[in-house]
Design a protein that fits this description.
Layout: E1 7-12, H1 16-19, H2 32-39, E2 45-51, H3 61-64, E3 71-74, E4 85-88, E5 114-118, H4 141-147, E6 152-158, H5 160-173, E7 177-186, H6 193-199, E8 203-205, H7 207-213
Parallel strand pairs: 1-2, 1-6, 2-5, 6-7, 7-8
Antiparallel strand pairs: 3-4
Length: 216
């Protein structure tokens, strides 16, 4: 009997600020077309994540009156235990209900079935589209995947060394066979993230391989 295969596409943070705006990933616009080609494929569900921050989010340098790209240690919210985490302080980006948080122009967002929002709590950074780094709260993503009986997740978007990698690592932890589509991902600093994902059992593929898997 053929093994069950129910694939989902997760489009990570294809937003204006990450492509053209205040925190643009190098050459990010180059992946719009590859992402669109995958959005046209017959996935069981197509889900997009969005950073959707309050204006005083903990990840913003302005919040701490510190230089952009400096680093601090952040701690779990009050009344919760957990290790301190190093936090890069970013330019203000993807503020909720502003143009910077919108899907980038040219993305075929009409093909997306569900959008999940992350980074909405002012005191918690959230790179992964699944949950915060202390695993205190989940987004709507786990429930959406479970509801559709998903077995495999295919991840694309921005940025490879931050939100894409965090989402992929969490996908493995949630029990999904996990694929990252390298020609539909751009990183801030292209490097060790690929090795780290492969060590976790994540499969690195290109768009054409995905289309063959989907018999597209």
């Amino acid at each position: 009997m053929k093994a069950k295969f129910t694939p989902a596409l997760i489009v990570v943070d294809m937003q204006y600020d990450f492509v053209h705006g205040s925190l643009a990933v190098p050459d990010a616009s180059a992946i719009i077309q590859p992402v669109n080609s995958l959005l046209a494929c017959p996935f069981a569900i197509k889900i997009a994540s969005k950073d959707f921050h309050p204006p005083d989010h903990i990840s913003f340098a302005r919040t701490h009156n510190k230089p952009v790209f400096s680093k601090i240690n952040i701690h779990p919210p009050r009344y919760h235990e957990g290790r301190a985490l190093e936090q890069v302080l970013w330019p203000v980006h993807c503020v909720a209900n502003t143009p910077g948080a919108d899907f980038v122009e040219g993305l075929s967002h009409q093909a997306i079935n569900t959008t999940v929002l992350k980074g909405q709590d002012p005191g918690i950074e959230m790179y992964s589209a699944f949950r915060d780094p202390w695993h205190l709260a989940e987004t709507a993503l786990p429930a959406a995947l479970q509801r559709h009986g998903v077995t495999d997740v295919f991840i694309v978007g921005l940025a490879g060394d931050y939100c894409v990698m965090s989402t992929a690592l969490d996908a493995v932890d949630f029990g999904y066979k996990t694929w990252v589509v390298k020609d539909a991902v751009k990183s801030v600093h292209d490097g060790e993230e690929w090795d780290e994902m492969e060590r976790k059992g994540i499969r690195l593929v290109d768009s054409q391989e995905v289309k063959k898997l989907l018999s597209y």
